[in-house]
Amino acid sequence: MKQIRQAIVCAVTLVLSSIYTLVTYPLYVCRNLGYHLRSPSVLLYALIFFILDRYSKLLVINNSHQLPVKVIEDFFTLTYVKNPGVAFGWFPDWRLPPIMMALTMILIIGYYSLKLPEEERLTRWSLALLVGGAIGNLYDRILYGFVVDFFLFHIGPFDFPVFNIADIAIDLGVFMLFVDIFFLTSDEDEEDNSEGLAPTSA
Questions:
Q1: Which of 53, 74, 93, 149 is catalytic?
Q2: Is the pLDDT reported for residue 131 higher than 50?
Q3: For 162, which DSSP code?
Q4: Domain range for 98
Q5: Would the pLDDT of 202 be above 50?
Q6: Where does the pLDDT of residue 44 fall: very low under 50, low under 70, confident under 90, or very high at 90 and above?
Q7: Looking at the structure, do residues 149 and 173 belong to the same domain, yes or no?
């Protein structure tokens, strides 16, 4: 009986804390909207990207009986593909590893984002894209056992692997992070070094 009471107390505490977070966090965001727009909150924008991805997939699933649709003849088709593998349908027999990798990436990036300085805006955007895309595909794997893909491009006889909005977010996030690390960061370091070597007046 004591264990049951403890379990009930824990459950009630969890529910109340969740409700409190759901109610107060949007209010906090609204009060500090200017800050969030100037210095993007990784988790907030990741949630927005996840919602966009989820909405697009629900549209595809609910209208799957009308697909495929050739949007641009011999170039772009909207379709409905159940992808049990990882990116672009690779390793279709994998089930648990993609879920574990996605969870690990989300936790690491989420923790790292909390320590980012305010001026690292491009890094914040790239991490938000990565987390939002990862959560979008992770949600599919847990809910369906596969990822919903629907964008199909053709270039001549070649069909590009089918992908979704979450894949776009992940690829764009990786690209932005690459640019930030290998190009912008080095430029900032050079500016800092030049300022440090600037002669001082007596």
A1: 149
A2: yes
A3: P
A4: 39-195
A5: no
A6: confident
A7: yes
Residue 41: per-residue pLDDT: 72
CA-to-CA distance for 170 and 176, rounded, in angstroms? Answer: 10
Tokens of 181: 């690390």
Q: Which of 159, 167, 180, 189 is catalytic?
A: 167
Q: What letters, b where the CB count within 10 A reaches 16 and e where it falls short, cover 147-168?
A: bbbbbbeeeeeeeeebbbbbbe
In a domain, residue 8? The reply is yes
The verdict on 3 and 63 lying in the same domain is no
- In 3-state terms, what secondary structure has residue 40? coil
Residue 200 lies in a domain: no
73 found inside a domain: yes
161: left (phi over 0), alpha (psi -120 to 50) or beta: beta
Reply yes or no on whether 149 is catalytic: yes
Is the pLDDT at 61 greater than 60? The verdict is: yes
Residue 145 CB partners (closer than 8 Å, separation 6+): 84, 95
Average pLDDT, the chain: 75
Domains identified in the chain, total number? 2
- Ramachandran bin of 198, using left for φ above 0, alpha for ψ from -120 to 50, beta for the remaining angles: beta
Please tell me whether the overall predicted TM-score, pTM, comes out greater than 0.70 for this model. no
In terms of average pLDDT, the best of 9-18, 63-72, 180-189 is 63-72
CA–CA distance, 55 with 154 (Å, rounded to integer): 25
Residues 17 and 49 in one domain: no
Tell whether 92 is covered by a domain: yes
> Could you tell me if 170 and 129 are in contact, meaning their C-beta atoms sit under 8 angstroms apart?
yes
